[in-house]
């Protein structure tokens, strides 16, 4: 075995905590990487994975300090470099791809200027050479129109393209080591797959050594040769990807793997109860409403569904599909242009101001990010107490008693009432967020991506809790997510939105089975599976970037693998019921769809 | 609070101390002054610093220390009330504009933009020419001049908070404007608003001092620090403390408030980072 390209020995990073004491956040981490190897750092938030990744660049975040150990890249002792030498080292010999590409690009300069900057800065190439190299990279990363995409500005390309452009930026100076920090976490599944494939081709093609930071085991299984599992800044386990996935030794790795596998909750069929909410022919959007009753920018078109007491409906679609708008319309925040929302058979006024306090109480919203959903300047007690006072008029000791009961319901200690949201962990905040909705004693809870910002294990616990509450309290829930895994795990019924239209709706069991609407099939087959080689087996999908300016009769037409030109782009697709029990919006016959579904598989 | 004080750097402590001193003097100055502000205590004018007259005497032989202490009430008091009016109305209008949005926002914003477009010194001179320079007129005038600036700051802060999910949740609950403004938005913008309040206070002190220096502010026999400088201009040739001391008072108040503001905004930032 040759001398490894990268060697990290006994790395220790310390940070100052609130009390001003220095505590280690990363302890005794050692690993080595051969040239061309990809190592994944995996763990929950707070496990120290990003801290370790940054220390490979000789960098510690403000308040942190690399306090021990050695990092050697090639012949260089990274931690021994002077400030000046570090500047030369970063970008040229080791580069970094961050989670949010939109935050990493300067919106006022062209993509090409920013991608080539690193090479020009370090003098590894002249402008013409750097641009040639950039275009090669654009081509290798499967970006559309590689010759000209560089002339665009960051806002003129899609999120997935920007993420790939950032990879080009990192690779332009041909570094020895690339650090990728959750580069696909913010992307839709259908976009993620293309980005992953592009990354893998380029990294493997150029023989670059890479460190890939992620919390998603299924993604890591596609990318990494070896996996390092971290928890609370300490190494749990390191080994080849195949061994970690098939025979994890550390109990923690085992629990991670268990949480990644979907646990079916809820029923296969919705319970036979009266619908709490019924939505009929709902159309909504932004801007002036035209003479035909369509808003200037329609977001939702002709949506209809019912949610029964104690049941949950999953709403799934990629960003921009209108799923969050649907929650806003049902909650009354955005009045619908057409259609009706019935609460227990009674029509709800479209606008918030016209609804009675009783109607408002019965529908509650829970938002994705508990950081912005909880007022940072109010205590948990005040946050939960307000809806209790507002809807039920309870004050003083009675209110405190109810706050305590709510905290108990979401499995938080009573002492949390005294705290501010900033002092809670992500999972705890999301529980408070949920408790606030429960405080109103609602009939329907609208959950918008409630677990998307959480770690797998914490998210699974929240899903368990929600499922328990749903059954105990007979709540109806609408569960909005971009993650098919989550939706299939918690919902009795699933509705798939594409460009504001409901393209498929059916019971959970139906969504598990082929045939699907072509878009559902794309979603189903884009969710990474927890095994190596899945990415290679997957056929290519057309990303959302190919959408033209004119809206065809079927919005999915440009990306559809079984589209019928001349029909699908001209005639609005009919709603048809498949034998598995789901309704879809498609021109294709069931047999055609079934044939199309076979190669992809569930 | 005590923790915040312990973390202060010396500059912040000095600023707070100066501010506290002048606020105290505005409250009790006339009571602790050794002489009556209008009493001629010595036939000698522009006396230098002495044990008997710590700040010397003025152009009529009045005790300068007593004059400055009496003046504090005018300078600090008028500016404080005017700044409260400016920041208070700016804050309320700003939160209303953010919460209601739409045409209400447009109407308030355009009206105050119109006000901003009038040069403030000119506006002040016209108001004094029309209504005289009584204390209520000065307060109202300064309050109106500095409202649009306070409104701009408060509105932009409130708009950002208003867009956050916790406000949407409160709105979806059916909460009224009072709760949205008072409980949800205000606690999140109060830090920068207070810092802005301090700045407005300083601007108003300087505006009023300037007006008084021109003879258009507080009228004799009463005097604020600006008019004290004006009265004793002749003493400048003799380097008399009578002209320097009120100027020094203005400077110390301005600097003190600025140092205190840094603490206020910086202290809150440190708290947020934790």
Please identify the oligomeric state.
heterodimer
Provide a count of the helices of chain B: 10
- Structural class of the helices, strands and pairings of chain B? mainly alpha
How is the main sheet of chain B built?
none
Form type of chain B:
elongated
The percentage helix of chain B is: over 70%
- H/E element sequence of chain B: HHHHHHHHHH
Query: How are strands sequenced across the largest beta sheet of chain A?
Result: 16-17-18-13-19-20-22-21
- Whole-angstrom Rg of chain B: 22 Å
Morphology call of chain A: globular
The share of residues in extended strands of chain A comes to 15-25%
The secondary structure category of chain A is: alpha/beta
Biggest sheet of chain A, in brief? 8 strands, mixed
Structure description:
The complex is a heterodimer of chains A (602) and B (274). With 602 residues, chain A is an alpha/beta fold. Chain B starts with a helix and ends with a helix. Chain B has helices at residues 2-6, 10-32, 64-100, 102-116, 120-131, 135-162, 165-173, 177-213, 225-231, 241-273. The model of chain B is unreliable at 268-274 (pLDDT under 50). At the A-B interface, helix 12, strand 16 and helix 14 of A face helix 7 and helix 8 of B.
